[in-house]
User: Which sequence fits this backbone?
């Protein structure tokens, strides 16, 4: 699974870059990730409701994410994952930095994980790099919720941002996530990721496997 430390309070570099770029070109308009990814407010898959994170999710998100088993499966998350990290993740849409959703089980309504996209190059607007991120609480591993959520969020991102390059970072030793990403059409070879031991994978339509 993938997520970014840039989404937490330990790295806030993306927040200020949306106002311009290094080439001196006119700044791109801030992207409204919330309305583009969730034009109807939320959406459902077969077993999940994906709903943009709200301030009321902060404490539950900390409990869900600040777990050694989650850290092992999504090693790029800040650990410990604090209340400030949760609030920063929830606030991403306001800064044009991306948007993450709570994964709520349709059966019972429990929040079981999180999925969304992070703007890696916000200075390029909706034509830049978007990073897919997703993770599940440890009790919900092994039931293919991750595949269901990742595929749904990938489809949303592809539709909402057709000019963007969709990427993900994952270490090869995280075999479960690596194999899932390959099935979704992500290909290695784009270089090293920004995080320790991670490789950068890029989504390519021709590589997707049902």
Assistant:
């Amino acid at each position: 699974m993938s997520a970014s430390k840039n989404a937490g309070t330990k790295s806030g570099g993306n927040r200020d870059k949306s106002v311009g770029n290094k080439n001196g070109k006119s700044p791109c308009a801030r992207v409204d990730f919330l309305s583009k990814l969730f034009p109807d407010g939320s959406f459902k898959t077969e077993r999940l409701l994906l709903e943009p994170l709200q301030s009321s999710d902060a404490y539950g998100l900390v409990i869900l994410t600040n777990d050694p088993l989650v850290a092992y499966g999504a090693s790029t998350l800040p650990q410990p994952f604090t209340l400030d990290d949760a609030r920063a993740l929830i606030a991403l849409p306001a800064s044009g930095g991306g948007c993450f959703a709570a994964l709520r089980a349709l059966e019972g309504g429990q929040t079981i994980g999180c999925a969304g996209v992070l703007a890696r190059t916000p200075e390029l607007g909706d034509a830049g790099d978007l990073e897919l991120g997703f993770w599940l609480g440890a009790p919900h591993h092994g039931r293919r919720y991750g595949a269901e959520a990742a595929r749904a969020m990938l489809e949303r991102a592809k539709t909402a941002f057709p000019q963007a390059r969709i990427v993900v970072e994952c270490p090869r030793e995280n075999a479960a996530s690596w194999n899932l990403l390959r099935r979704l059409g992500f290909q290695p070879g784009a270089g090293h990721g920004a995080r320790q031991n991670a490789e950068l994978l890029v989504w390519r339509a021709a590589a997707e496997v049902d």
